[in-house]
Design brief:
4 strands; globular; mainly alpha; two-stranded antiparallel ribbon
Length: about 325
C-alpha cells in the first residue's frame, strides 16, 4: 500500500487503454486500507481496456499517481493529448472538464520547466484541442470555465486567459486559423514572468517603483522567448508585447495610444484582467463576474477598448444564458 501523502488524483478518462505508461497508477485500497492506495498498473505496463471499462462502469472518478512522477504524467498528457480528447466514451461535459484539467497540467509543465521547443509545441496542442472542442460543442466553453481554477497561479491564469480569448474571438466571428493565433498569443502572453524574481511576482502588497519597473519587463521577456523559438508572425508577437498598453496612452512598454495598440493586445488585455480580478490572489479575494466587470468599467477607465469591453460583457452574458 502507498501512503496517501505521496499521491495525487488524475482523471480516469485521461488514461488511455493498452498504451504503456511511463508512471505507476494507483487506485483506492479497500476495507481497513481504504484511506491508502494500492498499485493498479506498474510503470511500463498498460491499463487494459477491460479494466478501464470496468472502472468507468463503476463510476470511478479518479485514479492516482505518485507526486514525484507528476512530470512523467505531464509528458504523457502532452504526447497523447489529441488521443485522450478523441475518446468516444467520454461525455461532452466531462470531456470539456478533462480538457481543462489536462491542459492545466500541460501549461504548468510549460511554465515550470520551460524548454522552448516543447513549450511552443505543447501550447499549440492545447489551443488546437480547445478550438476543436469549441467548434464541435457550443456548451464546451461554459463547461471549461466551470472547471477552471480561481486560485491565481501564473500557468492557470495564462490558460484561463486563453480560454476567454478563444471564446470571445469565436463570439466575434473569428475563424479557426485566427482563433489559433489568438489562443496561442493569450496562452503565452505572460510566459516572460518566469524571468521575474519570485519575491516580486508573489509579493502580497504594492510593488516599489523599482519592483514595478522589473515587473514591466515581462512584456519584453515574453516577446523575446516566443521570438527565440522562431515565431515571426507580427500579429502574435505584438499581441504578446503590447498586452499592457492602455487606450489612454498610459500603459507600457511603449505608451501606445488608442488604435496604435494591436487588436490582439487589446482583446488579451481585457481577458487577462478579468481572469486576474475574478481569481483569488495574494492581495485580494476572487471577485464575482459582476464585481470584476464593475471594477474594469468604473475603476480602470481608459484602460480598455470600450467596444471590445462591451463585446466581452455580451459574450459573458451569452454564457450565463447557456447556464440557465
Amino acid at each position: 500500500m502507498q501512503d496517501m501523502t505521496l499521491i495525487e488524483p488524475v482523471p480516469i478518462h485521461s488514461i488511455l487503454s493498452d498504451v504503456p505508461l511511463s508512471f505507476s497508477l494507483y487506485t483506492h485500497g479497500e476495507g481497513e486500507d481504504e484511506r491508502r492506495y494500492k498499485k493498479l498498473v506498474e510503470k511500463g505496463n498498460v491499463l487494459s481496456s477491460g479494466v478501464r471499462a470496468a472502472l468507468i462502469y463503476k463510476s470511478t472518478g479518479n485514479l492516482f499517481i505518485r507526486i514525484d512522477e507528476r512530470p512523467l504524467y505531464i509528458d504523457y498528457l502532452g504526447e497523447n493529448f489529441a488521443k485522450i480528447n478523441a475518446q468516444g466514451d467520454t461525455p461532452k461535459e466531462e470531456k470539456a472538464k478533462l480538457l481543462y484539467q489536462s491542459a492545466n497540467r500541460i501549461v504548468e509543465g510549460v511554465f515550470s520547466q520551460p524548454n522552448i521547443d516543447t513549450a511552443m509545441a505543447k501550447s499549440q496542442t492545447v489551443v488546437g484541442e480547445t478550438i476543436e472542442l469549441l467548434m464541435n460543442d457550443e456548451n464546451a466553453l461554459l463547461a471549461m470555465i466551470r472547471a477552471s481554477e480561481h486560485e491565481y497561479r501564473l500557468f492557470t491564469h495564462s490558460l484561463n486567459t486563453a480560454i476567454f480569448a478563444i471564446g470571445l474571438g469565436h463570439f466575434l466571428g473569428m475563424e479557426a486559423p485566427e482563433l489559433a493565433k489568438l489562443g496561442f498569443t493569450a496562452l503565452l502572453h505572460d510566459i516572460g514572468k518566469i524571468k521575474i524574481p519570485a519575491h516580486i511576482l508573489d509579493k502580497p502588497g504594492p510593488l516599489s517603483e523599482y519592483e514595478f519597473e522589473m515587473m514591466k519587463m515581462h512584456c519584453h521577456y515574453s516577446y523575446n522567448i516566443v521570438k527565440q523559438f522562431g515565431q515571426k508572425d507580427r500579429v502574435i508577437l505584438e499581441g504578446i508585447k503590447y498586452h499592457h498598453e492602455r487606450m489612454d496612452g498610459k500603459g507600457y512598454p511603449d505608451a501606445l495610444f488608442g488604435d496604435e495598440i494591436p487588436v490582439f493586445a487589446r482583446l488579451i488585455a481585457i481577458c487577462s484582467s478579468y481572469s486576474a480580478i475574478s481569481s483569488h490572489t495574494s492581495y485580494h479575494e476572487a471577485y464575482s463576474s459582476f464585481e470584476s466587470l464593475s471594477i474594469m468599467k468604473k475603476e480602470m477607465v481608459g484602460a480598455y477598448d470600450p467596444k471590445l469591453l462591451q463585446d466581452f460583457i455580451r459574450f459573458l452574458g451569452s454564457l450565463l444564458v447557456q447556464k440557465k
